[in-house]
Amino acid sequence: MAPVQVKKICCIGAGYVGGPTCAVIALKCPNIIVTIVDLNKARIDAWNSPDFALPIYEPGLVDVVKQARGRNLFFSTDVDKAIEEADLIFVSVNTPTKKSGVGAGFAADLNYVELATRRIATVASSNKIVVEKSTVPCRTAESMRTILEANSKPGCHFDILSNPEFLAEGTAIDDLFAPDRVLIGSLQTPEGISACESLAQVYSNWVPKERILTVGLWSSELSKLAANAMLAQRISSVNALSAICEATGANIDEVAHAIGYDSRIGPKFLRASVGFGGSCFQKDILNLVYLSESLHLPEVAAYWRQVVEMNEYQKRRFSKRVVDTLFNTITGKRIAVLGFAFKADTGDTRESAAITLIKDFQSEKAIVSVYDPQVPHDQIWQDLQEASPLVPLDTIKKQVSICNSAIEACKNAEAVVIATEWKEFKEIDWEEVYANMNKPAFVFDGRLLVDADKLRKIGFKVTTIGRPSNTD
Ligand SMILES: NC(=O)c1ccc[n+]([C@@H]2O[C@H](COP(=O)([O-])OP(=O)(O)OC[C@H]3O[C@@H](n4cnc5c(N)ncnc54)[C@H](O)[C@@H]3O)[C@@H](O)[C@H]2O)c1
Ligand SMILES: O=c1ccn([C@@H]2O[C@H](COP(=O)(O)OP(=O)(O)O[C@H]3O[C@H](CO)[C@@H](O)[C@H](O)[C@H]3O)[C@@H](O)[C@H]2O)c(=O)[nH]1
């Protein structure tokens, strides 16, 4: 079967994945019309804003959108029109962890995927290649196919592909321009292989052929969960070692450096931290845990669950270290929290470690001043409210304030807690910070960001993750 040449793409979901991914496809494939749709009008309006005030912050994204928007890249709320016109449809909607019902707290909520799939079936009157871009449990493509086939118009044929996304926030554009690999899963039927070839041709406009991996549908779906589980496992492993370092006098930086030199281990993703955050790692591991339990593999489930438990332990351990170091009480003390995003170079706060830390400080009755260079203030209030649903926002606002600079946040504080590795925190005038703080002035570096010796020379008492107190 000759592969269909894709001329029009629709992407359902204009979020952190759909937006950047399909904007890059539009940039790299000027002959393909790409329309990104979403039900959220405010989000689409932001993508279309004349001054490029896009709904997500991602280095390099504005340049991509500037070049392609209006040429062959369009953002719209008219979901049906874009579905109808497209040859290929990416489903890039959110798949959060279920909050209630069977599998609550573990299983992926596939409601958005199902609604988008049903919409495609209802609207489409010509053949479509439907691509699962969202991260989903193994065999979701089968459910999508069943829904599409049961609801399709006569003569309308659907091929389903899995094409998970591996971009990391903060480096999304670089990752999309030069991906380690593009993974496409299809049924191993002539139609499936042909559809796979159609999508591979789109990517081959800029991705070298040897980096486009084609596999079976279920392997593709599972590979996405597996990649995230193994990445998160590395962080939990290094964080577990950081606890041993703090107790023994070893230095986690030196340990990570030494083990990373082994070419079988490699140096990347071994940075001890206050805990991993982001919308993916925890969700996808819990998804894998649920899958393992559903398959009656309790030992496998327990193995992966431990990666998340270690992460929770790391966050709790860090908060406790702050309290212990500040003479076992932080009641009424001002703590400056630098960074609220889950990592640097993003404004995304989903599952950010900062949220847990601030909640812990609130329950110890500290006064908290927060600063993040990218996260909107409304988002911070929303996250803190969601973290403490029983506490009225007015009460939270009496304990927490949001500042417009790091210097302002640190004023009159007893301690500075570095929760996100923003480069600007390395470069702030620490002498000025010190001058304006109560003494003794403490710094807790949860990101291995600052030069502890330099800060100690200024007068700070510095505690660094993965190093023993007082001696690093
Ligand atoms: N964020 C990441 O870095 C990342 C990376 C790789 C994979 N993923 C996966 O990609 C998927 C999307 O993640 P995200 O971070 O972009 O989510 P997101 O919440 O930022 O975006 C999803 C968008 O889909 C829209 N939507 C939901 N249902 C819809 C429907 N029926 N019709 C039209 N629009 C609809 C929502 O309004 C939302 O704007 C998830 O499965 C996630 O696990 C995310
Ligand atoms: O050595 C490290 C590396 C990362 N982190 C933390 O781990 C979290 C996740 O970081 P990262 O993986 O860089 O960002 P994400 O955007 O969550 O990307 C992950 O999740 C995406 C969504 O599935 C995948 O597509 C990516 O491949 C995968 O890296 C963040 O809190 C980081 O601060 C560490 O603590 N130490």
Automatic annotation (TrEMBL):
- Where does the record place the catalytic residues? C280
Tell me the first and last residues of the signal peptide.
none
**Which annotated residues bind NAD(+)?**
13-18, 38, 43, 93-97, 134-135, 169, 280-283, 350
Any one Gene Ontology MF annotation carried by this entry is: NAD binding
Q: What is its EC number?
A: 1.1.1.22
The source's domain of life comes to: Eukaryota
Q: In which pathway does it act?
A: Nucleotide-sugar biosynthesis; UDP-alpha-D-glucuronate biosynthesis; UDP-alpha-D-glucuronate from UDP-alpha-D-glucose: step 1/1
GO biological processes: glycosaminoglycan biosynthetic process; UDP-glucuronate biosynthetic process
Q: Does the keyword Oxidoreductase apply?
A: yes
Top enzyme class, one word, equals oxidoreductase
Q: Name the GO cellular-component terms.
A: nucleus
Q: Which UniProt keywords apply?
A: NAD, Oxidoreductase
Q: Which InterPro entries match?
A: 6-PGluconate_DH-like_C_sf, NAD(P)-bd_dom_sf, UDP-Glc/GDP-Man, UDP-Glc/GDP-Man_DH_C, UDP-Glc/GDP-Man_DH_C_sf, UDP-Glc/GDP-Man_DH_dimer, UDP-Glc/GDP-Man_DH_N, UDPglc_DH_euk
Q: Which reaction does it catalyse?
A: UDP-alpha-D-glucose + 2 NAD(+) + H2O = UDP-alpha-D-glucuronate + 2 NADH + 3 H(+)
Limits of the UDP-glucose/GDP-mannose dehydrogenase C-terminal domain? 336-452
By sequence similarity, the record places it as follows:
Belongs to the UDP-glucose/GDP-mannose dehydrogenase family.
The record ties this protein, via PANTHER family, to: UDP-GLUCOSE 6-DEHYDROGENASE (PTHR11374:SF3), UDP-GLUCOSE DEHYDROGENASE/UDP-MANNAC DEHYDROGENASE (PTHR11374)
The identity of this protein, by name, is: UDP-glucose 6-dehydrogenase
- The source organism is Panaeolus cyanescens
For this protein's source organism, the top of the classification is:
Eukaryota, Fungi, Dikarya, Basidiomycota, Agaricomycotina
